[in-house]
Design brief:
402 residues, mainly beta, 25 strands, Neuraminidase
C-alpha cells in the first residue's frame, strides 16, 4: 500500500471533493499582442518573498521574446501582496533577446542567481538546429536584496561550455528554478541540441538530438562546470535532490520528451553524470511534449505517527511534479505526489489545479513548511492568456487526488 492511499484511508472512505484554488493573475496577455510566457518561481525564506519571473514577448512566438520581467510577492495581513511588474533591464546582452529564466538562491552568501539564455536577434531554435550554428549565450545576473536590484549580466559561455559549443546546435537552461543541494552545490538544469553526426565536407548537421544536463558550482557561484548529457533524448528539465534513508544524496532529473512520457534519470555524482534514464509511465506527455516542474521536500512522517505505521517510502524526501495531464493537448494542469521517489510507479494520480488550457509551470516550497506554490501558464481558450499564481498545502494534494 502506498503512503498516499494509507493517509487517505485514515481520513475517509469516500473521495474528497475537488477544491477550487484561488488564482492570482500576475501577467496577462495584452490586446496589442504582448504575451508573457515561460514562468519561473522562487521563494526566499530570508525575506519571506516570492519572486515570479517570465518572458515578455511582442507576440506569443519564441523569436519575439524581448526581456525578462518580474513581480515580487510578500505576505501582508493574511494575503500575498504583489509589486507591479518590472523589466529586468540588466538581464540582457546587446542585440540579443533574454529567455528561459532560471532562479536559484545561494544560502551561504545570501545571493540570488538568475540564469537565462540570450539569443542573437530573432534567430529561432529550429534555425539553429537546422544549420548547426548556435546563437545562444549562457548568462546570469545576481541580487543581494531579494530582487530589488540586480547586477550586470555575466556571460559564462566561453568559460563553462568552451570548445564543446561547436557540437551544440543550440541550448537553454531550465526553464524554471534551479536548486542548492545540502552539500552546497548549486544546480542549474539545462539541455542542449547535440550534433551527433555532420555531413562532410559541408558540416551540415545530419543527426541532432536534445539531451538534458546540469551546470553546477561548488564555490557559491564563483565558478561553474558542465555535467555530462543524459544518454537518451530529453529536453527542458528540472532537477530535485532526493535524500535516502541513509542520508545519502541523489540528484533526480525530470525532462520533457516527445515519446509520450517524461524522462527520469538519477545522478549519484550530484549532476556530473546521470545514470539509467527511463520513461516514467505514469507521467504522460502531449504529442510534442511540454515543460514541467519538480521539487523535493522533507517527508512529514516524523510528525504523523499514525501514517508512519504504513509507510513504504525509502527516502527522507518526497517529490512534487506539475504538468498538463491531457495526452492530446496542453490542458488540465495537475500536481502529482511521489512518496517513494526511487519507485518507477511511485507517482500518485494528479490533482488538477487548472482544468482549462495550461502550459509551462514552476513549483516552489514556502520555506520549510508543508505549503507550496505554483506559477502556471493558463487560460479559458488558450494557455497563452495569462500566468497565474496559486498557493496550496500538502493536505490539499493528499485530499484532492483524482
Amino acid at each position: 500500500m502506498s503512503r498516499i492511499h494509507c493517509a487517505m484511508d485514515n481520513r475517509t472512505s469516500s473521495p474528497a471533493p475537488q477544491e477550487e484554488l484561488l488564482k492570482t493573475t500576475l501577467f496577462r496577455q495584452e490586446s496589442s499582442g504582448i504575451t508573457y510566457r515561460i514562468p519561473a518561481l522562487i521563494y526566499i525564506s530570508d525575506g519571506e518573498t516570492f519572486l515570479a519571473f517570465a518572458e515578455k514577448r511582442s507576440t506569443s512566438r519564441d523569436c519575439d521574446a524581448k526581456i525578462l520581467v518580474m513581480r515580487r510577492g510578500t505576505h501582508q495581513d493574511g494575503s500575498i501582496q504583489w509589486s507591479p511588474a518590472e523589466e529586468l533591464t540588466t538581464a540582457c546582452l546587446p542585440e540579443h533577446r533574454a529567455m528561459n529564466p532560471c532562479p536559484v538562491y545561494e544560502r551561504k552568501s545570501r545571493t540570488l542567481y538568475l540564469f537565462f539564455i540570450c539569443v542573437l536577434g530573432t534567430t529561432t531554435e529550429q534555425c539553429q538546429i537546422r544549420t548547426g550554428h548556435n546563437k545562444a549565450r549562457l548568462c546570469y545576473v545576481t541580487s543581494k536584496d531579494n530582487g530589488q536590484s540586480w547586477s550586470k549580466a555575466t556571460d559564462l559561455t566561453e568559460s563553462v561550455i568552451g570548445n564543446e559549443i561547436v557540437n551544440w546546435a543550440t541550448f537553454a537552461v531550465g526553464p524554471g528554478h534551479g536548486i542548492q543541494m545540502k552539500s552546497g552545490r548549486l544546480i542549474i538544469p539545462a539541455y542542449t541540441y547535440y550534433i551527433h553526426v555532420r555531413c562532410f565536407p559541408f558540416h551540415f548537421p545530419l543527426i541532432v538530438k536534445p539531451h538534458a544536463l546540469a551546470f553546477y558550482s561548488d564555490d557559491c557561484g564563483s565558478t561553474w562546470q558542465m555535467g555530462k548529457r543524459v544518454d537518451i533524448k530529453s529536453c527542458e528539465c528540472e532537477m530535485a535532490e532526493i535524500i535516502d534513508r541513509d542520508s545519502k544524496s541523489h540528484l533526480y532529473c525530470n525532462a520533457r520528451s516527445t515519446q509520450g512520457h517524461r524522462v527520469e534519470a538519477l545522478s549519484e555524482s550530484s549532476g556530473a553524470a546521470f545514470d539509467k534514464p527511463h520513461f516514467a509511465q505514469k507521467l504522460v506527455e502531449p504529442c510534442h511534449g511540454c515543460q514541467g516542474s519538480v521539487l523535493s521536500f522533507a517527508s512529514p512522517q516524523h510528525t504523523r505517527q499514525e501514517e508512519k505505521n504504513c509507510l513504504t517510502s525509502d527516502t527522507k524526501t518526497w517529490l512534487l511534479y506539475s504538468h498538463p495531464t491531457n495526452r492530446r493537448t496542453r490542458k488540465a494542469l495537475g500536481v502529482y505526489l511521489n512518496t517513494s521517489p526511487f519507485s518507477a510507479s511511485g507517482w500518485s494520480q494528479p490533482w488538477i489545479i487548472h482544468h482549462g488550457p495550461s502550459g509551462y509551470s514552476d513549483l516552489t516550497q514556502c520555506g520549510e513548511t508543508e505549503r507550496f506554490a505554483c506559477l502556471m501558464e493558463c487560460g479559458v481558450r488558450s494557455e497563452l492568456e495569462e500566468i497565474a499564481f496559486v498557493e496550496f498545502s500538502l493536505s490539499h494534494i493528499m485530499n484532492n487526488q483524482s
